[in-house]
Amino acid sequence: MNLYLRSLRPVQLRLIAAIGRLGKLRLAADACGMTVPAASRMLTEIEVKLGVALFERDARGMKPTASGKVLGHHALKVVHNIDQMAHDFAAHHEGTAGSVRIGAVTGAALAAVIPAILQLKRKAPLLKVSLDVSSSSRLMWGLERGEYDFAVSRLERGANAGDFDVSPARDEEVLLMVHRRHELARRDHLLLAEIADHPWTMQEHGAPIRHAIEIAFREEGVDLPLNLIETASVVAIMALLRDSNVIAAVTQEVADLLLKPPFSADLVLLKTHNSIVIEPYHILRPRDRSLSAGAEQMLALVKTLLEREKVTNSDKWFGDEIN
C-alpha cells in the first residue's frame, strides 16, 4: 500500500482532492478536465489498489470516508504545491516574480529607474526590486562584485569597458538652485565670478557634479568657492536650501523633483551665463552574467524611458533655439 501511495500520479491526487472538495464526481471530472467515465475508472482503480473505499456514494453525491479524508487532506496539499510550483515557474519565466537588483546615480534613478520600477510593479506586484542610489564609483564597485543585475552609472576611469554591455543613456547638466529669497534669485546671465563668494553646497571632490563645476570655474578663470558644504544627500541639500542662503549644485532631475508638484518647494534656479555639463551616464550590464526575465523586463523599461526622456529634451532644446 505504501509503495502504491508513493507512486500516485498528480492527476490521481487532483481527482481525489476535487471529489472531496466538490462532493460530486461530475463536477470533479470537469475540474480535472476528464470525462465522468474516465474519472470513475480512475477512482475505482485507486480504491481497488488500496483495498479501501475513499468515498461513500448516495443520491446527494459523494462523501469521504475516514480513509478518504486522510488521503484527500494530503492530496489537496500536494495539488496546491504543484499549482504553486507551476505559478512560480511561469512567473519567473515571464518576469512577474523573482528579484531585480539595480544601481543608479541620482539623476538616472529619478528620470527612469523609479518610473520603470513603478510601471513594472503594477504588472508584477510580487517582483522583489532592490534599488541602490549612489555614486558612480560605488556603483561600479558593486557591479563588478555582482551586487546588481545592471546599473545606470558613469563608467569610472580605469574600469574595463569590455566587461560590460554599455548602452548610452543621457547627458546631464548641473543647475544651481537657491531659495527664492536669495539675493541672486532674480539676476540674469550670472557669471561664476559673481557667485563664487556666496555659500555653496556640492558633492565631494571626485564626484561628477563637482568635477564639472571645477572645470566650469577653471574655464572662467575663477577660483572654486571656499565657503563650501560637501554633501551628495538630496535630503541634506533640501534642508540647507530651506534654512540658509546656500547655492546648491543639482541635476535636472533633482531640480524637477523639488520645483514641480506635488512638492513645489520655494526654490528657484539661478540663470547663469554659461551652462555646466556633466559627463554622460550609461546603462552598464556585465557581459558574463545572464539576467532573469524580470531583470530583462526592467532593463528594457529603463532603456525605453531614458530614450523617451532624451527625445523630449531634444525637442525642448530645439524649440528653445527656434524661439
Structure description:
One of its GO terms (molecular function) is DNA-binding transcription factor activity. This is LysR family transcriptional regulator. Residues 12-65 form the HTH lysR-type domain. This protein has 323 residues and is α/β, with parallel strands linked by helices. The chain folds into two domains: 2-94, Arc Repressor Mutant, subunit A (Orthogonal Bundle); 99-322, D-Maltodextrin-Binding Protein, domain 2, CATH 3.40.190.290. The protein has twelve helices and eleven strands. The protein has helices spanning 2-6, 10-22, 25-32, 36-50, 66-94, 106-123, 136-144, 192-195, 208-219, 234-243, 252-259, 293-322; strands at residues 55-58, 61-64, 99-104, 128-133, 150-153, 164-179, 200-202, 228-230, 247-251, 267-269, 276-286. Helix 6 (106-123) links the parallel strand 3 (99-104) and strand 4 (128-133). Helix 2 packs across helix 3 (25-32) and helix 2 (10-22) crosses helix 5.
